[in-house]
Amino acid sequence: SQQGEEDPQALSIQEGENATMNCSYKTSINNLQWYRQNSGRGLVHLILIRSNEREKHSGRLRVTLDTSKKSSSLLITASRAADTASYFCATDVGGGGNKLTFGTGTQLKVEL
Amino acid sequence: EAGVAQSPRYKIIEKRQSVAFWCNPISGHATLYWYQQILGQGPKLLIQFQNNGVVDDSQLPKDRFSAERLKGVDSTLKIQPAKLEDSAVYLCASRRGTNTDTQYFGPGTRLTVL
Lengths: 112, 114
Description:
The complex is a heterodimer.
Chain A (H helix, E strand, L loop, with lengths): L4 E3 L2 E5 L4 E6 L6 E7 L5 E8 L4 E4 L2 E6 L4 E6 L8 E8 L7 E3 L3 E6 L1
Parallel strand pairs in A: 2-11
Antiparallel strand pairs in A: 1-3, 3-8, 4-5, 4-9, 6-7, 7-8, 9-10, 9-11
Chain B lengths: L4 E3 L2 E4 L5 E6 L6 E7 L6 E7 L2 E4 L8 E4 L6 E5 L8 E8 L8 E2 L3 E5 L1
Parallel strand pairs in B: 2-11
Antiparallel strand pairs in B: 1-3, 3-8, 4-5, 4-9, 5-6, 7-8, 9-10, 9-11
């Protein structure tokens, strides 16, 4: 079953704009990760935020985590056409093994 | 370092036929995962290996799916017999060890069952 639900399902923006996508999940987690998937390719790990963290940055990416609301958001600033991809959140509920449960994904299209 | 390798990249079969996928993880990675990704959905974990032992196969349909990692390195996933609903991308991922959290994914095998 899917643990996370991403919102929106699809997002279209212009190059240079910021893109925000949200993830909600159902159970307590050890950490939450965001992955990117380009058309026809495997997933690429973007960023991980642990349950005791509230915000994390990596380059043009900013992730927030609100464990009280069981939600996370991914912000991509100054988007580029190359950011066009599907973005998935994945939760690790702990217990060892780094077993991930992925959400349904947000399809981002960045237009020139 | 080389990434996770998978083959074949594409496979088309008729229902009730058998099919096998191969995965070679990143060198030195002890943990290996197989995921199924149906079109429009996120990946779903099928099975997880730690070296050559199964850690979790709770979501593997064992009546038709099987997987092995005999020498603790590469792995095969088999479907026998295939059903229409098995059409999906099968992703393999690996992780170095128990103290790291990042999984590295291969390009996947796209299976179409007709």
